[in-house]
Amino acid sequence: MLAVAVEAARTAGGELLGRFGSDLDIQWKTWQGEKTVVTDADFAADQAIRTVLARHVPDHIIFSEEFPEGDVFGDDVWVIDPLDGTDNYSRGQPQFCVSVAHTRAGVADVAAIYDPIRDEMFTATTESTSMLNGQQIEVTTRSDPSDSSVAWAQRGVNANDEIRFNMALAEAARVFYRIRLTGSSAIETAWVAAGRFDGALFSNVKWWDHAGGGLLVQQAGGKATDVRGHPTGPDSRRCVFSNGPIHDVILRLANKHGLEIPFS
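Structure (tokenized):
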């Protein structure tokens, strides 16, 4: 399955790289009340993944950001984000990736996240450690928040949540050494796995955003939970990924400011 995931992610990445910086067809889409940008490159990458999967595993379900259909708790479900970081991509910002994960009963067992700009392929399975271009990667061992770099989510999901989120962000800026917002949650989780970030908190991610990244973090020795500390899954929307030692620090900060309220 890993070879299929890698082929699918790399093929989609080639589509994205070939179209990057071109005149894109940029539109808006709405899913569950949330309005986001989508481009023709998203759909082209989605189709590239589907073509690869149809060739190798034609009977499997595909649950994609562009077409979120099917039973995500099935035995052979591919959870894909053909272009994570669409807003960055549409503005010519080179921070985006492809995320492909195979899942069983709502749990990822194979993951491939491909950054075509840097030609970096992050992979993991439940039977292996996390890898970057074939070399093993591990999370950091930092335990002091004042030395830790943490990726942070963009914003709250409503007016009251926005206030809570801004307060949490202000405190996080005081607690942690650095706070980073990159615009691609899948890359951020891959970077936690690779030790480039010590942790990450996401405000409103979907299953396609974090299915693969969560597995990468866990297989690199880290932790992946929602803001209540429960294991992540298809219904997890506000999540924390970390190296482990600073996980509870992020959870306490999130809970102090009521960041779980919108998803209670």
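The helical segments are 2-19, 40-56, 86-90, 159-175, 185-193, 207-219, 247-256. The mean pLDDT is 94.
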